[in-house]
Design brief:
- By secondary structure, this protein is α+β, with helices and mostly antiparallel strands.
- The chain folds into 2 domains: 105 residues, Topoisomerase I, Chain A, domain 4 (Orthogonal Bundle); 68 residues, 2-Layer Sandwich (Gyrase A, domain 2).
- Helices cover 58% and strands 15% of the residues.
- The strands form 2 sheets. A 4-stranded antiparallel sheet has the order 3-4-6-5, covered by helices on one side. A two-stranded antiparallel sheet has the order 1-2.
- It is elongated and about 70 Å long.
- Responsible for the release of ribosomes from messenger RNA at the termination of protein biosynthesis. May increase the efficiency of translation by recycling ribosomes from one round of translation to another.
- One of its GO terms (molecular function) is ribosomal large subunit binding.
- Pfam families: RRF.
- Its main location: cytoplasm.
């Protein structure tokens, strides 16, 4: 029965990873307050190599509507500014020669609805990954030899319970994110 446990553990691990990815995706969806996570995926062309922004500059949030970026190397300031503009985050960086300031504009009702729709799309993508993990788990169970059909049916039931549990977790995360986005 060790093989059964390994299969169930693998399915659970895959589903858990999908939910963690969803949480990471939700961090990138801004909800009105400035956060360093809004720019964490910005890649700066630094000495000819794409480099994460947090490896070339100090990123901070001095207040709820501002992100401050202070490059460690002043020669990189233009490259950072260009990377922010090209990242399509919707920010207009202001450069004072030493720092880059990003003002996070308040969200309009239309933009809030767009972000809620984006969060819903991320959730659906995650649920697809969860269902694929279920399918893979069931395929693996059916490949097992020397195990009774009853035990395989019970294990399939366990895989389905995991699927339901993780889908419910996704729905809860979406509900919380939508509430955060729509809060004015």
């Amino acid at each position: 029965m060790e093989e059964l446990d390994l299969i169930l553990e693998s399915v659970k691990h895959d589903m858990d990873a999908a939910v963690k990815h969803l949480d990471h995706a939700f961090q990138r969806i801004r909800a009105g307050r400035a956060s360093t996570s809004m720019v964490q995926d910005v890649m700066v062309e630094y000495y000819g190599a794409p480099t994460p922004l947090n490896q070339v500059a100090n990123v901070s949030v001095p207040d709820a509507m501002t992100i401050a970026i202070q490059p460690w190397d002043r020669t990189a300031i233009n490259a950072i500014e260009k990377a922010i503009i090209n990242s399509n985050l919707g920010f207009a960086p202001s450069n004072n020669g030493e720092n880059i300031i990003l003002n996070v504009p308040p969200l309009t009702e239309e933009r809030r609805k767009e972000l809620a729709k984006q969060a819903k799309g991320e959730t659906e993508d995650t649920k697809i990954v969860i269902r694929n993990a279920r399918q893979n788990g069931i395929k693996e169970l059916k490949k097992l030899e020397g195990v009774s059909e009853d035990i395989i049916k019970d294990s399939e039931g366990s895989v389905q319970e995991l699927t339901d549990k993780f889908s419910k977790i996704c729905d809860e995360h979406l509900k919380n994110k939508e509430a955060e986005i729509m809060k004015v």
